[in-house]
Amino acid sequence: MGGMLDTAWLLQELEPVVTRNLERHLAMAKEWMPHEYVPWSVGRDYADLGGADWDPNESRLSPIARTALEVNLLTEDNLPSYHREIERAFGRDRAWGAWVHRWTAEEGRHAYCIRDYLLVTRGVDPVELERARMQVMTTGFDADEKPILHVLAYVSFQELATRISHRNTGRFADDPVCERLLSRVATDENLHMVFYRNLVSAALEVAPGPTMRAIADEMAGFEMPGAMIPGFTRKAAQIAQAGIYDLRIHHDEIVQPLLRHWDVFDIGGLDAEGELARDELAATVAALAAQATRFEEQRARTRARVAARQA
Ligand SMILES: [Fe+2]
Ligand SMILES: [Fe+2]
């Protein structure tokens, strides 16, 4: 089998796996009510209804917690683009189509319950938030005709990264209501990750070489879907400095568990191209591990400098 695989063949070959995993997902996913996670009683009107504009002093969130929540929310906001991309890759027929719609319905509540929480608690500047949302959605998200195996590898990494990012943001926010909300959202993301991870496992059986290529490419070029958020690079750096999401976490809690689960370094049946992809993958993982260590050392030095200045 060459490098280019027929998409129709793959969709057909993987469809029974989609059916099984959709059933598994529906059995595992517990119904939950977003409105039960929002502290409505602390809310009050904004200026146009006779209340007051947002005042930064009202936010009980630290500036970094605010940044992390904004980035997570704006990332969730771009759902119409993500829906378009997975519909393009998976189609809208039978089990694939059923998954596309179910997944979209679950993702839909993430943005609105996080927004409800932030607006009711006056956690962030609502004007800045709305302007950023307009900008992000106007830009949209484009996967550039990514082939299906690459999409499956990407969303496996991305759903797990999103799960960890929500969970750690909730812990960092230092508000039990926020933590409860974000850990509930993270539970959704975990089930999404499991669904995609299982599809990649099945793809490794029917097309080991091309799937290894897809994993290697997506691991090497991984970027969060929120990369178009205004000021993303600076915000991601702050989030990393705070230890909410950094290279160490990316390596230890996203990349390694997935690669272990897929058993990428031990599976057999690879053709020459597949072996080449696996060698590339090993080199990328080693480079990431080294980068993570350098980052941690740098951060420790920065923190020590700041502590010395404050002493
Ligand atoms: Fe989500
Ligand atoms: Fe998700």
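The pocket of fe (ii) ion (ligand 2) is lined by residues 107, 159, 162, 188-189, 192 (CB under 6 Å).
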